Fold this sequence. Notes:
This protein is an alpha/beta fold. The protein has a single domain, classed as Rossmann fold (3-Layer(aba) Sandwich), CATH 3.40.50.1580. Helices cover about 25% and strands about 25% of the residues. The strands form 2 sheets. Strands 1, 2, 3, 4, 5, 6, 7, 8, 9, 10 and 11 form an 11-stranded mixed sheet that branches. Strand 3 and strand 4 form a beta hairpin. Helix 2 crosses helix 5. It is globular, with a radius of gyration of 18 Å. It starts with a strand and ends with a helix. The structure holds hypoxanthine (HPA). Hypoxanthine (HPA) binds next to strand 5, strand 10 and strand 11.
Amino acid sequence: MKVAIIGGSLLGSIPDFTGIAGQSTQTPYGEPSGICTTARINNIDVCYLNRHGASHRLAPHQINYRANMFMLKTLDVTDIVAVTAVGGITGKMSPMRWVVPDQIIDYSYGREQTYNDADKAAVNHIDFTYPFEDGLRKKLEQAITMSNMACLTQATYGVTQGPRLETIAEIKRMQRDGCDIVGMTAMPEAALARELEMNYATLSLVVNWAAGKGSADSTVGGDQLPEIISMDEIRRRIAEGNEKAEIIIKNVISLFNQ
Ligand code: HPA
């Protein structure tokens, strides 16, 4: 049993993780986003990887997801908690809500998204009916509750390409499709984890209302317009969310020993 935490804009590092995992970061799929830091907590080996790189230099579409997930597999990781900051689309998904999504719609493109495309290799289809592993989702839900925070567990995560945020019309379409939250990184991470037979679930924090969903507080010629998305507000919510994310992560790790 070995747990990996993947952080991003949210949970950019975990200060208590001071060890270094592995000798080399090279993989057959190229270079991962960086090295893993490690800690031993409650007799469990835990490692941490920032998918954007230690200095946040990789945009979501530039991340080598295959190298990242391959590296975790070679470190014998069995369970992955992926931490993501997302925008809220549907009513309950308001800023500072914790969400453990249960479904995905993938709108990203041009990303290396499978290990099953090697030349002349037999085609291998994975089941992806439930893209997130249910046992891990339940642990996350329990950990959020233990941390005295509320948790939403029925949510479809729409994955956009980025790095720009979406237009109002794009978010309206995503809502018609059934998306509740929008982010840029759950795919292909979730599918690659499944291909490598690692359990994977996402801990998401809503850091803004998605485009067009913010309260109408500006007026032009008497017409109410939805507000634009403030990056300062997002940064502020991420800073606030970081401390809570660390608590939730410690609690989720404690649940592996039971
Ligand atoms: N859209 C896409 N990704 C995001 C958003 C958003 O509004 N907020 C945080 N990540």
